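Thread: quick sanity check before group meeting

JM: Hey all, I'm pulling together slides for Thursday and realized we never actually wrote out the predicted structure for the chain we discussed last week. Dropping the sequence here so it's in one place. If anyone has concerns about the input, flag it before I start.
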Amino acid sequence: MKRKEVILFMTVGTGTNLNINEENSKNHAQKLYYTINKIRPDKVIFFASDKSKGTVEYIEELFQKDNDEFILDEDYQIVIINAIDDLNTCFEAYESKIWELDYEDDGDYDIIMDYTSGTKTMSAAMASCGMFYSKDLISVGGDRSTGEVSRGTEIINYQNIYKIYDKFALMRTRNNFNANRFRACIDILNYIVDLNIHKDSLMHLCKAYYAWDNMDFEDAYDHLRKVNLNQVEFMEVKNDIKFNLKALGNIINSKSVNLKNCYILASLINNSIRRSEEFKYDDAIARLYRSFELIAQIELTKYNIKSSDIDVSVLKQNNVSDEFIMDLEKTREDGKIRIGLEKDFMLLNELGNDLGKYYVDNESKIKNLTRKRNNSILAHGLDSLTQNDFDEFLDIVLNLSYSLDKDMKKFIKQTKFAKFDLKLKLNKN
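JM (edit): ok, ran it. Output follows.
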């Protein structure tokens, strides 16, 4: 396999003396020459000011003394930075060269960035740029008893910055979590290696909400129970997770069918709200439509009626009119009467139920909304829905859900996904 070429980035300063003179430049050149000889790159790119670029000439002389060559454009290149105390200018100079090598040139390179020399701003910018683009960072250390590294004591330090990468990954995870991109969170967490970060609990957290977002309540409950809420990463969301865990527990374990169904409904409503926050209004309204339908189905169970298999004898016991029953009989297929959203609410109205009455009183508005849903790209048509369509539909669904159960506001609050406070400086140590 062909060896990758090594490109060494080096900042060129003036040593400890702000006044550039021949002695300072020669001393500085000697230190840069030491690093070049140790790394033995295929090419060096110096980042210097107009005042410090002359130092490179002394590096050429050092190569000549060792019977070697150091040729401009072949072995090295000089990039001039005019504003050496401006962080953005320095960063962009390094970044531009990385892009040129990594994305514009056909070569296959490993870039090593030595941020030892130059102004403090040049060094800070190079370290930041190297971390941002995942390049190897080195610095030259040694005996500093005289204030700078003494000649002959130099040691090249490769900077292992995995902790920084992991903390950056943690912040990316928190951002993605708040944006409901739970699969992305899981992918990012797989790369964390710092044992001080409670990766396992974070993984269970993201898998729990990924499952819940897909309405897989059992898997969500199983993962969320495994999150250690006493760990530092969860201190700001601890109470919200406890609410969420209680809600999932009721969905999985409650012996009350009504309580379980109400929590499922609340989860579905929150699911639709999350889609709307992502501007996916067709998707959001599809979920609202199912919520709307579920409200009627939950209410019908209180009469021991299943809309997927209507028992006519139960309707008669509840004094439903013969005319309405005859109308339902016309839809019987395979021995069963199955009814949809509109008939669900009309049946509730026949039963003298308040939800059915609400539907009849708002029938024109509701039919207009359901018509838009039916014409959407995710239903039977090609239309795209808007935020205003969603807001109107949500208002109807919430009004009906509050009438369905007096505790529905609590259920919706408990099924709202936990969110991290992204302003919190989690890793203060």
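AS: nice. The longest strand covers residues 5-11. The chain has a mean pLDDT of 89.
JM: adding both to the slides.
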